Amino acid sequence: MSSAIDRWVMAVAEELGVTPNPADTRTILDLTKDVAHNVDRPAAPVTAYLIGIAVGQGRPLPQAVKCIRDLADGWEGMSEES
User: Fold this and answer.
1) Does a structural domain hold residue 16?
2) What pLDDT digit, counting tens, does each position of 20-75 carry?
3) Domain count of the chain?
4) SS (H, E, C) 43-69
5) Which domain holds residue 32?
């Protein structure tokens, strides 16, 4: 049986006419966790959106994720939630 997120991702992908990659889903979830913790919770979904744009414009996902993860890891401003 698949998880709720797996079912959701498959349904969204079908609606959008794209093919999801389970490894990409995990990568994005891990990245957004880092952004939510190191930057600010509301920054996480916006970051995922911007990563999607970058990948859609041809930037490889691993490269985009590394760039943003490095940025979040070095982020000096503390989250309002911290």
Assistant:
1) no
2) 888 899 999 999 999 999 999 999 999 999 999 999 999 999 999 999 999 999 99
3) 1
4) HHHHHHHHHHHHHHCCCCHHHHHHHHH
5) 22-82
